[in-house]
Structure formats: C-alpha cells, structure tokens
Amino acid sequence: MTTTETSRQAGVKRSTSRGVDLKLEVIVIPVSDVDRAKSFYTVLGWRLDADFASGPDYRVVQFTPPGSACAMIFGTNVTAAAPGSAQGLYLIVSDLEAARKELLGRDVDVSEPFHDAGGNFIGPDEPYLFGRRRVDGVDPGRRSYRSFASFSDPDGNGWLLQEVTARLPGRVEPAGTSFRSSLELAAALRRAASAHGEHEKRGGGHDDNWADWYADYIVREQSGEPLPS
C-alpha cells in the first residue's frame, strides 16, 4: 500500500451502512500435474479439504493454508488458465523469519527476505506489490506490509509471504480482533511486551495494569488505530 494510494482513499466517502457479506472463499490455481501439486502442498503442511474425481476428465483438490479463511483449489478441467500462470498470491504472516524457517524446514525453496526500494518501482526482478525492484533483507524499519519472501510451486505458480504486524486504519474492526494461530498471538504478545517495557521506562516503575495495556495495544495494532504510549 503506497502513501499516494492511502491519500487517495482518504478523500473517498465510505458508506456507513453494512451490506451483504461477500467472503472470499477460494482461489483457483492452474497446474499441469495434479498429483505432483497435491504432494507439494501436502509437504507445505496445508490442510487437505477435498480430493474429488468424476472419471478421468474431472478432478478437484482443495487445500487451505494454516490460519487462512480462504482456500485454494486445482485439478483437472477446473480452469482454462495456463499452468504456472497464477502469480502474486499473498500469504500474510506476522513473523517473516519464522515463516521462512518453517518452509525451509519442509525443504521448500523460499527466497531470502526482501523489501522495496522506496519509490523505485522499475527493475529487473519479478513484479510484486511494490514494483519490480527487490532490495535484499527485511525492511530496515521493520514496517508492517514492507517485508517479503517468495516461493513457487512445481508449475511456477508464485506465492509471496508478506509480513503484516499492524493493519492500516479501517482494515479490521476493533470488535473483530482475532488470531488464527497460537504463533500469531504469541508474536503479537511479544510486540506488546516490548512496547510495554518502553511504557514502563517512561513511567518510572512497574505498571500494575499491564494486562489492560497489553490488550489495548493488541486490539489497536490489529485494527490500525493509534497505539498507546
């Protein structure tokens, strides 16, 4: 998300009425060998939801990534797209290094961390959210949304890990704060603990209400609200 885009959105009047829920349920990726793709996503540790076939001309396999509300399917005669043509499939993680370590432990060829070039969008690299220039290493300021790693399945369908630790305003309703895994919650608690340590230094002593402070910090961080000081 760029500063320009955020500024443009600031001038858009949002509706105050809630419409019908439209939940992204599934994405379809094209593969050339269904069994090979199934083996790959099994190795990733993704949950196998379905593997249905109707004769030799139709088969659909569904997997869901850990913690995701959206699944993905592939199979035989489920899409006309060319195998490997699905690119820019984003997997949001709260700790990029931990996510890379897990993938490497599963023998997945995942890239080194990279970040954007600060407004330079033209380059020789594979395109992603911030253009075609990938700078080695995580974002120096460890800003939310700005650190990435990438990997591909055997057909070349491209996945990106994007580290998101704090949402931009309006992305999550405060009442809807939730965590889909213990790892995600633990990462949020560690960030709150670090920030609370600075809070106690400024206050000059132990904060008996640390639990309330942690809870407020975590809810605000996830919903994109200003963080407590």
Describe the structure.
It is a single chain. This protein is an alpha+beta fold. It has three domains: 24-86, 2,3-Dihydroxybiphenyl 1,2-Dioxygenase, domain 1 (Roll), CATH 3.10.180; 87-165, 2,3-Dihydroxybiphenyl 1,2-Dioxygenase, domain 1, CATH 3.10.180; 174-223. Helices cover 28% and strands 19% of the residues. It has five helices and nine strands. The chain has helices at residues 3-10, 34-43, 96-105, 182-203, 210-223; strands spanning 26-28, 47-53, 59-64, 71-76, 89-93, 114-115, 135-136, 147-152, 158-163. A five-stranded mixed sheet has the order 5-9-8-6-7. Strand 3 and strand 4 (71-76) form a beta hairpin. Helix 4 packs across helix 5 (210-223). The protein is globular, with a radius of gyration of 20 Å. The relative contact order is 0.12. The mean pLDDT is 87.
Write the layout of secondary structure elements.
Elements: H1 3-10, E1 26-28, H2 34-43, E2 47-53, E3 59-64, E4 71-76, E5 89-93, H3 96-105, E6 114-115, E7 135-136, E8 147-152, E9 158-163, H4 182-203, H5 210-223
Number of separate helices: 5
CATH class term of the largest domain = Alpha Beta
Note the run of SSEs as H and E: HEHEEEEHEEEEHH
Largest sheet: 5 strands, mixed
Examine the coordinates and then state which fold CATH places here, giving the name of the CATH topology of the largest domain.
2,3-Dihydroxybiphenyl 1,2-Dioxygenase, domain 1
Which regions contain 5 or more consecutive residues with pLDDT less than 50? Answer: none
Termini distance? 25 Å
Average pLDDT:
87
- Strand adjacency order, main sheet: 5-9-8-6-7
- Strand fraction equals 15-25%
From the helix content, strand content and strand pairing, which structural class follows?
A: alpha+beta
CA radius of gyration is: 20 Å
CATH superfamily of the largest domain: 2,3-Dihydroxybiphenyl 1,2-Dioxygenase, domain 1
The CATH architecture designation of the largest domain is Roll
Shape: globular
Number of strands: 9
